[in-house]
Each structure stands twice: as structure tokens, then as C-alpha cells.
Amino acid sequence: MDKLTIRDADVAGKRVFVRVDFNVPLADGRVTDDSRIRAAIPTILYLVQAGAKVILASHLGRPNGKVSDSLRLRPVGQRLTELLRRNVPVTGDALGLGTEDALKRMRPGEILLLENLRFHAEEEANDPAFAATLASYADIFVNDAFGTAHRAHASTVGIAKILPAYAGLLMERELAMLSKLLEAPERPFAAILGGAKVSDKLKVIDHLITKVDLLVLGGGMANTFLLAQGKAIGKSLAEPDRVQDAQRILAKAERNKVRVVLPIDVIVAKEVTRGTEYKTLQAEKIPASWHIVDLGKASQDLMVDALSDVKTVFWNGPLGVFEIPSFAHGTNAVARLLADRAEHGATVVIGGGDSVASITQQGLADKMTHISTGGGASLEFLEGRDLPGVSVLLDRPKEPKVRASKASASKPKATTPVKPAAPVRAASTKASATKAPAKSTATKPAATKPAATKPAATKPAATKPAATKAAVKATKPAATTAPAKTAATKAPAKAVAKAAKPNAKPAATKPAAKAVAAGSRARTEKRS
Ligand code: ADP
Ligand code: MG
Question: Where does ligand 1 bind, in terms of residues with CB under 6 Å?
């Protein structure tokens, strides 16, 4: 990776401000899916072990610049305390004397979680004074919040312009996995895109179509492509003003010799609700009063067959209204196939809150190569765009190749004695964080901007102290009792809808019941 990571920083005894993405779903004051909290643990443990004072900061939901008691980070602090088996106090506010006092009292190895950053409108406005205050808390900035890296906020970009800014281990892994898709995918490489709104996905399709061998389209957004092919789709969700874009993409695919697989038969329903009347029809002429809600069996077979030999896959967006079990068959069939491909060595990367929810619901998340913690961020990255929260991190200085070996001959000691706590998975990723292709060259940049850094190449620290391992292990058992999973299997109706949104806004801001009634309404959900 061309960005410096915490492995390159000298953090011992330093105050380290870590932007994490703890935007997790809550219900009744408890975290219902802790994937994002777990995903940050390798970075937190690494810093703790290295003797840093770890100041964690995150947003939660959309309080729009006002204090909202239902969006306090206390439940997150509690969950983190359980996972780490270390006390993680939460401040009453991200600013103020109480927080400053708590910061002053911190000792190396201690952790403090700041209250929801978005209680201050200045956070999303990337207000310079707010960023400066946050920066005053620390000596070093670490961004591990991949899910927010596409947003230029005070805690992602503003602060990174003031403090020396490094990538956390989750950020490193996300970037490594997604870069691999764009730069060196093993072929055949397929993209599977579904979900509700085609307008959300056009840019990523446009870019991926220059990279993939196969494009599989399903879900609500495929309906606009069916329209583009002159088919009738009845009352199905579609965006008629995007038909031309769809036509252009189909033509581009043909020019690029990319095979496009669209549904050939579909499940249509009278209403997009549970218990409604439904049947299978050819995806040709859907009568005016029906909604397309899932893939038919022939489409499933066609897609599974087309994907049977892929070596690399990116999947975003469910292929039907998966929140309703009768309409989850297409999504589930493809998820099973991908789990199987991953077990046979293919690289399977999944991004998107609902897509991740669907595979988590099926208990397949652990089988996939990488589950991205960022829906919107992963799409923007795959659109080929620079993410502001990433661009602003310190660049890894390019070293002339000839000199590299010399430099390593006189290698200074790595500044931190331990390897990161690798075995905890980023959300649920297969390879450990240390497997990420990024070079673990330990460098020691000065506490200024890139120009001033002069790293000397060293070997990565080779030891993994027992303490780290034990701490990581300690966080594991909870995996099997994650509240989201339990809820999903036990209480089919409400709980599934809730559990189905691990990467989405907390339940408080989006009632679970709504999620079930997907499709019939115009979906205006923004990328989180
Ligand atoms: P992700 O969160 O994985 O990026 P999206 O948010 O784009 O996915 O889309 C997920 C939503 O798409 C789900 O709520 C699902 O119900 C909806 N959806 C999928 N297929 C259809 C369809 N045929 N009609 C209406 N909605 C659909
Ligand atoms: Mg979504």
C-alpha cells in the first residue's frame, strides 16, 4: 500500500487519535451487530500493546449536529469493554473540560472513547476549529474508519491535515483487498450488482466494466436494464430516466467483450410484502400490476453456472427483496455459490450493508475472503475515485529500488515491538490483517508531513507476543453469540429486518419494520 500505516509510526507513550467506524445498529440500548467494533480491534490492540494512549472517536447515526440520547456511544463502549476485557470509558461529549481532563489523566495503554462526533455539526462540516480541537487531543492521527473514508469530515480529513496521519490495520486491509480487485484480479473476474437503485450503482458498473469478464445484474436495479432491452416490467421498481445509461452500459459491455447476465425469469408479486400472492414469469412481459421481487429458478441456474469458474468476485446489492424470506432465494443461491467459490480458493469480496446482512443471515460471512465494512466507501473506491479520508494520509515514500537492500542492511529496530493483533477478523475476513499485501516496512516518519519523512527500510517485526494472541482470543468466543445472528435465527420477522442492517444506520433512525416493506416505496436511502 502506498500509505503509511500504524506499523510505520512510533506510538509508544504517544496520544493517538483513532477515527473508527462504530456506526453500528442499536436496539434497546444494546449493539445488535458488533462487526464494525470487532473490525477495529486489531488496530486498537496493536496501539495498546505498543504503549499508546488510545483516543477513539466515531460517529453514530445521524444526529445532525444535536445531542441525541439514543445515539450515545455508551452501548458501544460497553461492547468494546466486553470484547477487549479492558475498561473503555466514554466521555460525555467529544469536546469540553470533562473530556480534556479525562485525556490528561490517560496513561500509556489506556483507551478512551469520545462521545458521538456528529453531536457537533462542525464534524460533518469539516470545520477547521473543530478539527484543530480534536487534533489538540493527540500527537498522531490514525484513520481506521474505512466506512467513512469517502467523506471529508473534521475527524477524517480536517484532523489529518494537522497531525501526522496513518492508516489503521482495517483501513490497510480494506484498501489492499479492493485495490487487488482493480489492479490484479485473478481471472475470470466477475462483478455481481443488485440492490434497489440503479442510480447508486451506475458509476461503479461503468468503471468495473473496464475490469471484469462477467457482469451479473439482479435486484431492483436490473429492472432498469430490462427496460433498456425493451421489456415490460409492470409495477417493478425502476428508474426510467436511467434507461439510456443502462443502454450505454450494455453497449460498452459488448465493446469490451464483457458478458452480461440479466434475469431471464423472475418472481413477481402482487405487493412487496410478506404473505402476498406471487408466481414465476419469464422476464419479458410482466403484466402491469405485478412487481419483480426475486430471481426465478432459471435465472439462478444461469447465474450460478456463469459464476461457476470465477476466480475473483465482487458483489454488491441483494438480487431480490431478501428481507422477505420468500423473495430471498436468488440472493441466497448466489451467496451459497460464492461461499463455495471462496472455499475453492477464489477471492470473494462483498460490500454493501444489505448484501452483507444477507450473507450474515445465512451464516456464510466467515467463508468469504473479505467483507467490506464500508458500503458507500467501497463503491466509491471501485468507481476509481480517490477517497478524501485516504488521500490525506501520509504517503509511503518511494524508495529507489537499488538502495532498498542497502538500507535494510543497516536496519534500525522496529519502533513497535509487536505485530498487530491479526487473528481478529475485519468484520469477517478470511485472511488475517497481516496478510495484506502492503509492505510492513517499519519506518519512522517525523511528526510532520510527508516531505519531511525519511524512513529507513527495516524488516517487519517477526514476533507475535502471547499477550496479543491471548487478548485476541478473548474477543473470539462472542463471535458465536453475536446478538445479530441469534436474533436472526430466533425471531424471523422483526428481528431479521433489524439484523439485516449491520452496516446501516442504527435501528433508532430507521425502524426495522420499514426495511421489510422494501421496494414498493421509492428508496431514497443514501450511502451511509
Ligand atoms: P447494499 O446495501 O448491499 O448496497 P442496496 O442498499 O443497494 O444494497 O439495496 C438493498 C435493497 O434492495 C434491499 O432492501 C432489497 O429489498 C432491495 N431490492 C432488491 N431487489 C429488489 C427488487 N426487485 N425490488 C425492490 N427492491 C429490491
Ligand atoms: Mg443498502
Answer: 194-196, 200, 219-220, 237, 292-293, 316-318, 320-321, 323, 352-355, 375, 518-519, 525
